[in-house]
Amino acid sequence: MFLETKNLTKRFGGLVAVNSVDFSIEKGKINAIIGPNGAGKSTYFNLISGFYKPTSGQVIFNGQDITKLPPNKVAELGIARTFQSTNLFEQATVLDNVIIGHRLRTNSNLFDAVFRTKRLKREEKMCRDKAMEVLDFVGLTESANQLIGGITQEEKKRAAFALALATDPEIVFLDEPAAGINPDETEGLAILMKKMVDKGITVCLIEHKMSMIMKIADKIMVLNYGEKIAEGTPDEIKNNDAVIKAYLGGSAIA
Amino acid sequence: MSTIFQRKNVIIAVILFAIAFPYLTDNTYYIHIMSLAFIWTIAVYGLNLLAGYTGYLSLAHAGFFAIGAYSIGLLTVKAGLNYWLAFILAILITSFLGLLIGLISLRTKEHFFAIYTLCVGYVIYLVIDKWDSLTGGVRGLIGIPAPANIGPISFQTPVSLYYLILFFMLLAVLVAYRIVNSLTGRTYIAIRNSEELALTMGIDTGKNKLVVFVISTAFAGVAGALYASFIRFIGPEVAYTTVVFDLLTFLLVGGIGTLTGPIVGTLLIVWISQQLQFLQDYRMLIFGPVLTLLVIFYPRGLVGGFYAWKMKREHKRAMKANSAKSSDSAIGAKDQVKEG
Ligand SMILES: Nc1ncnc2c1ncn2[C@@H]1O[C@H](COP(=O)(O)OP(=O)(O)O)[C@@H](O)[C@H]1O
Ligand SMILES: [Mg+2]
């Protein structure tokens, strides 16, 4: 098992946002989580990445129980994520935003800073090289020195991907990466996700754009009112009665 | 490359001016004012690392300044310790109390952090004011020695003391500069921009915040210790809330989150208020509105405003140079984040 959740549950007062979800993410594949608004998808991500502590249940990663780890420790283990709204620093360059992504793989501290040690210089170069590498990977080399505030929405999404990749992750969780961008650009992001998988990085995304999901996902889980109502391949999901009912009942698709 | 040389030249010119300053004036009062301004500058650099770069506005820093001042005062006057040993201990004591207070206050954020630390600062003032047997209460502490000789160098004259203070001020600027321009500085800036994102990037935000809090109190401690040995007399008012608001004013005018802001703001305000001394407290009628306008129009102070203006100019020039190419915002923002 690569990454799995067992009986994962999160209550907010009386509301059960995630209800006893068992799910196993497949390594080296594109996994997707779909479901209507408020189904608990983002909460599920927050539980895995350590931002929320579950009410009950477990998160297991590479055989290790990571349920109680804080987010920074989860990141160190190789689990990266992006947020539903990209919260990059608008007044800094793309490069400056991404450089910090590799900080967790460095050790230099205040002492190194004050005395400008060899280690600091080496690690600064390491972070910069890593940033350039991931910017190249997502196709943002040209924009490296532009302010985040001055690039397009789609480029911001790519920058957020780059930041996640700079942490050297084994798996990335992407929360609605294609929200707010046009179909052509969505296609571009889909290609990028495939490229990530080709590089050996597992992808797990939340997405509302069904056509895209059905095209690229290897495995899909459907959440509704915090409960897993189905999981399987795109074809299985398309023909699943519970899914059809949930979506028709909830009117708009996801 | 040429800009780097320019900056280097400016820095060298400023340092040379500071070194020559005592010889440019016969007025020992001016040397006194300049020394005092340098002491405040050290404290403002400390505040800037925490409030400007990490985004945690501490209003307890007059308290830590006072702890530094009282520590060296008590250790030399009452315990009779060797001056420089007392100096080092004063910084350690301030940092240690900073660690304890940081552990508690950093559980809060934003406005709550500011309010909480404001209260902490006031409590420090009260302790100094009321703990008569230790601090001398309102009577204060007198007879604090000037810094002891280091080998053949003595610090008994105002000019030699000026150079000692200048040395510590430059050291503070250098340390702040190196911290800001390192991975550690980037880490602090990441925390300021979004703590949530920093955590996601694997940054131990709790530990980093505590370290920068302690460093920033150490700066205040150094400033306080120098102040006590410079003025030779301290009273509880050094811990008073107005002091921290003075520091904050210096920082805001110069430019919060900029590297040159603290020294620009402090020197400017200290000298202007000297010049306006004949107005007495009516000075505030001028300072108040000016500060308000500055914060509205230049949220990153004079230095931030200057860099914004320079960037705009460069941007315009770049646009003209390749008007064919539609370069939306090919601005070197390096300055914006760290230097500006
Ligand atoms: N921090 C929180 N406190 C209280 N309720 C929350 C919190 N986060 C999410 N919720 C609630 O949990 C439910 C699931 O939210 P979310 O996971 O964001 O849904 P989705 O991402 O699937 O749209 C919603 O009803 C939401 O209001
Ligand atoms: Mg969501």
Give descriptors for this structure.
heterodimer; A: 254 residues; alpha/beta; Rossmann fold; 2 domains; six-stranded mixed sheet; four-stranded antiparallel sheet; 10 strands; globular; B: 340 residues; mainly alpha; ABC transporter involved in vitamin B12 uptake, BtuC; two-stranded antiparallel sheet; 2 strands; disordered C terminus; binds adenosine-5'-diphosphate
Tell me what the structure shows.
The complex is a heterodimer of chains A (254) and B (340). With 254 residues, chain A is α/β, with parallel strands linked by helices. Chain A folds into 2 domains: 1-78 and 170-254, P-loop containing nucleotide triphosphate hydrolases (Rossmann fold, 3-Layer(aba) Sandwich), CATH 3.40.50; 89-168, no CATH class. In chain A, 38% of the residues lie in helices and 24% in strands. Chain A is built from 10 helices and 10 strands. In chain A, β1 (3-12) and β2 form a beta hairpin. In chain A, α5 (118-138) crosses α6. The radius of gyration of chain A is 19 Å and the shape is globular. The two termini of chain A are 29 Å apart. In chain A, 47% of the residues are buried. With 340 residues, chain B is mainly α. Chain B folds into 2 domains: 14-299, ABC transporter involved in vitamin B12 uptake, BtuC (Orthogonal Bundle); 304-340. Chain B is built from 15 helices and 2 strands. Chain B has a two-stranded antiparallel ribbon with strand order 1-2. In chain B, α2 packs parallel to α7 (158-180) and α2 (28-53) packs across α11 (241-254). Chain B starts with a helix and ends with a helix. The relative contact order of chain B is 0.15. At the A-B interface, α2, α4 and α5 of A face α7, α8, α9, α10 and α15 of B. Bound molecules: adenosine-5'-diphosphate and magnesium ion. Adenosine-5'-diphosphate (ADP) binds at residues 12, 15, 17, 35, 37-43 of chain A.
